[in-house]
Amino acid sequence: MLRQQGRPDDAVLEFETVLAFDRNSVGALFHLGWCKVVTGSLDEGIPLAEQGIRLSPRDPLITNFYWRIGWVYLLESHAGDAVLWLEKARNANPRLAGIHAYLAAAYSLKGESERASAELAEARRLNHDDRYSSIARLSRGYWGVPKVRALFEATYFAGLRKAGMPEE
């Protein structure tokens, strides 16, 4: 509930409590990883996702762990590593528009403009609203603490701009 209310700092303690009682709770690992990343502890996001993958390698939601690893690498400006993990996520579930948008940004930052444009077009096709129509529209969401928001601006949004997403 705290995570959904946009209170990731408060949710961290709750997810850590769940893991103290059940260290194999894949859901708690996933949500704790998200909370850690958006509150600025990026270095903890990937190990938590990797642990979730090890615990549940055939999980129907494994796409989300791959995606998490990919976007942390993207925020850390490791576009090559981001592409590898985001492609895994896309291959596991090609119907998720957001993965295609992250791939568009990562490809763009790698200088692969055609692939970036194709992924951005696919994100727009799959999405049921106009969130991928402009940076202004997309950036209205919650992107974490100011430090993390700055990383999104320097990587994700910058890559989407290079891929052809307009400001307005």
Report on the structure:
- The protein is mainly α and 168 residues long.
- The protein has two domains: 1-59, Serine Threonine Protein Phosphatase 5, Tetratricopeptide repeat, CATH 1.25.40; 77-168, Serine Threonine Protein Phosphatase 5, Tetratricopeptide repeat.
- The chain has helices spanning 8-21, 26-38, 42-55, 62-75, 79-92, 97-109, 113-126, 135-138, 146-163.
- The termini are far apart.
Quick structural overview:
The protein has nine helices and no strands.
| Secondary structure: helix percent | over 70%
Distance between the termini: 33 Å
Which range does the strand content fall in?
A: under 5%
CATH class of the largest domain: Mainly Alpha
Round the mean pLDDT to the nearest integer and report it: 96
Tally of helical runs? 9
Q: At CATH's second level, what is the architecture of the largest domain?
A: Alpha Horseshoe
Ranges where pLDDT stays below 50 over 5 or more residues in a row are none
